[in-house]
Amino acid sequence: MSTQTSDVIDEFLGLAEKHLPHPAQRRNLAHYLVGLMSSLERKSVEPIAAMISPDDVEHRQGALLHFVAYGAWQDAPLRTEATHFALRAATPHASDVLGVVLDDTGMLKQGKQSVGVQRQYTGSAGKVANCQVAVTMAIYTERETLPLDIQLYLPKEWIEDPKRCAKVGIPEDKTFETKPQMALRMLKEARERGIPMGKYLAADAGYGYSSAFRNGVTALGFKYGVGVQSSQLVWDAAGVFERAMTAREVADMHPDRDFRRCHWREGRGGKRLSSRFLTMRVQVTLDGAEPTKRTRRQWLVIEWRDGEERPAHFYLCTYSSKWSVKKVIRVLMERWRIERMHEDLKGEVGFDHFEGRSWVGWNHHVTAAMCAYALLVAERCKAFPP
């Protein structure tokens, strides 16, 4: 571990003292962070203990296990502290936070005992698999992306089985929430904690399909750019449509020449990322009812990716009508940031390496991983200031 990494951890522990009042808690957090930020291939309790105390592995393992799996400390305050810590290094002004991105990610598991695990779809694997799924929320600046909150999705089969919940320590008052409902609650909680989240919000169709989610995001003051399903009903803002049409029908009624190529950023290796797009101003109503003068106008964006026979990706955006198509596309496509963050959380700080089964243990491990990620961002920003 570099001297600079050690300095960053020490600085953060000083701020975390009010959340972890006992010296043993701060010592265990420091050891766990060192392990998560190290080059260990597997970043779970046992290998971290072996790295920290090679001559006394059993004792160190017991201390770390108790801290992570049973420790009586709160996750949210420490996550908030870590976010503010990284933000201070990443940007001098809260207004430099541009927006928030929502998504979910899967953690493949063996067996059925780990909290929240079951066979369910995960975009990480691109299929139904035996896994846990977490709803993730990140904020971004021009240069950096930071995890703001990560919460475990609990399938209805878990919530409806009190014995199973009790076995892993899920709180008795926990009720079932869809992922869009979770995401909206997480946004409200972050707003209550005073964390800057910018003006714009991006999410895929797993969230954007929900009109309640879109309305809730708007009520919180965000301009959204979200994926929707091909069956999404829209009216054209010009008033030409005689009935609500699906996004798929809108795409099919336009010839190929109406789709224009737009490049939005440089990808890995300097590759220019681009697709063909069709954009139009539309109105969206509940169940396709006829719009009124008060119905909000927004952008419908249809993306036709290379290699697809027909367009297959559809979005709604409440960005300004004065924006150019290129600006609409560039802000909409900021969702890539959270996908990269997932890769780094798993590849750099062992986000998906937790081997316990309990609710408390999973949340404590994720909190430590979020702190480690924030400290790496802070370390990078101090070494290479914006």
Structure, described:
The protein has helices at residues 3-16, 23-36, 45-52, 57-69, 75-90, 156-159, 162-168, 179-192, 205-208, 211-219, 247-252, 325-332, 336-348, 359-383; strands at 99-108, 118-122, 127-140, 145-152, 200-203, 223-228, 233-236, 245-246, 260-266, 272-283, 297-304, 313-317. By secondary structure, it is an alpha+beta fold. Helix 3 (45-52) packs across helix 4 (57-69), helix 5 (75-90) runs parallel beside helix 14 (359-383) and helix 8 packs parallel to helix 10. It is globular and about 75 Å long.
SS content category? alpha+beta
Looking at how many chains there are and whether they match, the oligomeric state comes to single chain
Outline type: globular
By DSSP, the count of extended strands is: 12
Q: What's the main sheet like? A: 12 strands, mixed
Question: How big is the Rg?
Answer: 22 Å
Helical content stands at 40-55%
- Report how far the terminal alpha carbons are from each other: 24 Å
User: What is the averaged pLDDT score?
Assistant: 94
Portion in beta strands: 15-25%
Q: Could you name the ranges where pLDDT drops below 50 across 5 or more consecutive residues?
A: none
| Helix segment tally | 14
The helix/strand order is: HHHHHEEEEHHHEHHEEEHEEEEHHH
Index terms:
386 residues, alpha+beta, twelve-stranded mixed beta sheet, 40% helix
In short:
The protein is of the alpha+beta class. The protein contains 14 helices and 12 strands.
